[in-house]
Design goal:
Organism: Streptantibioticus ferralitis
Shape: globular
Pfam families: Trp_halogenase
Family: Belongs to the flavin-dependent halogenase family. Bacterial tryptophan halogenase subfamily.
Number of domains: 3
Keywords: Monooxygenase, Oxidoreductase
CATH class of the largest domain: Alpha Beta
Protein name: Tryptophan 7-halogenase
């Protein structure tokens, strides 16, 4: 029953009996990679999709380094791989790191994985304004009703489910649209994610700050790794160095919250000081001026706080992308997690509309999404732990042995798969042991790189690394060959598996 004096938040969620509301099968809020992916994947099944985007594309966005799973998996499934390949983005063979016990840089190559064929063992460094516009244009092409300059202010809901959204069009008029499902892909600043219930759990371990900008060029790593992202650890944190074009390089520093005052006082000066404190990156930028072309002429700041939602869906509504979760960007996993979560959501929506049990569909979405995020989250914690710098406040505070009990309890809740029913998780002690084991495995694999014969990649022989990139490899196989090379197993007893085209769930019978 509706309160006689509802709060503004309650009014925003109440059903509205207006007769002029538009009707769709699905409404997507946000047109970034997550929103464009889910919208296109649902439209490819013939459903009516409305996508509402607050900005007008092309628009600036951070997060330029992709993984092969997006390029050769998701983009092929959506039918946009050729356009992405023709866009002229910088090709990357992997990542180069000055990180860990060795003072020499080492490489993480996508090639030499036993399951990644050489023709697809690469990804791209992309200008997100161009890449995101390609994905959004593709969504339009496959039938999505894309409307830019539209701000969503609330959802239409009752106690049972979400029925639609209220939004303001570019002319300032209030509008309403209804649908069987609302997908929130509106990013970390989402105004509607609270309507699925639950809260955001913030990681104490990753409460960092990123300050970043661009240079008009810069030296490149020796070929064939000249397109790689370069991540260099130094005493105060780590720096990324991403070659976007011959005349454009993205450079950012990830540091602790103790730098917040200096960054707020003068972001550009602090950014320059942090670059100068890392000899490897400073040397690549010697004599190179800061970029002056718009929008790369600014130094920007972002709270680099990893988080996840305790609830990712409710009847009629689902969260994806940064509205659902975010993890430290050292492994370039942001766009992968966003588009992967979007594809999972699309499978659940398509299957539910086709008649499969809604709860079963979206429990599968949540279990898989939480599982994939948990893999990257634990990998990044363990990867941080391999950095050997006992003098540094930043790195001492980011050792596995110093992860707080509250953070470990939150981690157990995350990977214990409240959605997956995993009963092997017993508590923070188990989590600490697992993270230490992961760290030792990664460290040993990196140590074997120097002795590699060039015919194998010790990193992909590491159980930890294989586990993290397994689902991305399956996405690539599905995009390239039309199905995985091996029969897909459900991730939990009685779970679902993807259809051959990757757009629906089917019952595995196991």
């Amino acid at each position: 029953m509706t309160s006689p004096n509802p709060t503004p938040a309650a009014r925003a969620a109440e059903p509205n009996p207006r007769q002029d509301a538009e009707d769709f099968d699905v409404i997507v809020v946000g047109g970034g990679p997550a929103g464009a992916t889910v919208a296109a994947a649902v439209a490819l099944r013939g459903h009516r999709v409305l996508l509402l985007e607050r900005q007008t594309f092309p628009r600036y966005q951070i997060g330029e380094s992709l993984l092969p799973s997006t390029v050769h998996g998701v983009c092929r499934i959506l039918g946009v791989a050729d356009e992405v390949a023709a866009a002229g983005f910088q090709r990357k063979r992997g990542g180069t790191f000055r990180w860990g016990r060795s003072r020499d840089a080492w490489h993480f190559d996508f090639a030499l994985s036993p399951r990644l064929a050489d023709p697809t063992s690469f990804a791209f460094q992309v200008e997100r304004s161009k890449f995101d516009a390609i994905l959004l244009r593709n969504a339009r092409r496959v039938g999505v009703d894309v409307r830019e300059g539209c701000r969503v202010g609330g959802v239409v809901a009752d106690d049972e489910r979400v029925h639609g959204v209220r939004w303001t069009d570019p002319g300032g008029d209030s509008r309403e649209a209804r649908a069987r499902y609302v997908v929130d892909a509106s990013g970390n600043g989402s105004r509607i994610h609270t309507h699925v219930g639950g809260g955001r759990t913030y990681s104490d371990f990753f409460r960092n700050i990123a300050v970043f900008g661009y240079f008009a060029g810069g030296k490149r790593l020796p070929s064939p790794d000249d397109g790689n992202i370069f991540c260099a650890a130094f005493e105060e944190g780590w720096l990324w160095y991403i070659p976007l074009r011959d005349d454009l390089t993205s450079v950012g520093a990830v540091v602790s919250r103790s730098n917040a005052t200096a960054i707020q006082r003068d972001p550009a000066a602090t950014w320059r000081r942090l670059i100068d404190a890392c000899p490897e990156v400073k040397g690549l930028l010697s004599g190179v001026p800061q970029a002056t072309e718009t929008p790369y002429d600014q130094v920007r700041v972002r709270r680099d706080w990893s988080y996840w939602k305790s609830t990712l869906w409710r009847p009629g509504m689902v969260l994806i992308g940064d509205a659902a979760c975010f993890v430290d960007p050292v492994l370039s996993s942001g766009v992968h997690l966003a588009t992967y979560g979007a594809l999972l959501a699309a499978r659940s929506i398509n299957s539910s509309i086709a008649g499969l049990d809604e709860t079963r569909c979206f429990d599968e979405f949540e279990a898989r999404y939480r599982h994939e995020y948990g893999l990257f989250y634990s990998f990044v914690i363990s990867f941080y732990d391999t950095q050997q710098d006992e003098r540094s406040y930043f790195w001492k505070a980011r050792k596995v042995t110093d992860v707080g009990s509250t953070d470990l309890e939150a981690f157990v809740e995350l990977v214990g798969g409240l959605a997956s029913g995993d009963t092997s998780i017993t508590g923070p002690g188990w989590a600490s042991e697992q993270l230490e084991a992961f760290s030792a495995d990664i460290d040993a694999a990196v140590g074997r790189l120097a002795d590699s014969d060039g015919l194998r990649n010790p990193l992909f022989e590491s159980p930890t690394v294989r586990r993290v990139f397994q689902e991305g490899t399956v996405l690539q196989e599905r995009g390239i060959f039309g199905c995985p090379l091996e029969d897909e197993e459900p991730v939990r007893p009685g779970g679902l598996v993807a259809s051959e085209d990757g757009l629906e769930w089917i019952d595995s019978g196991r």
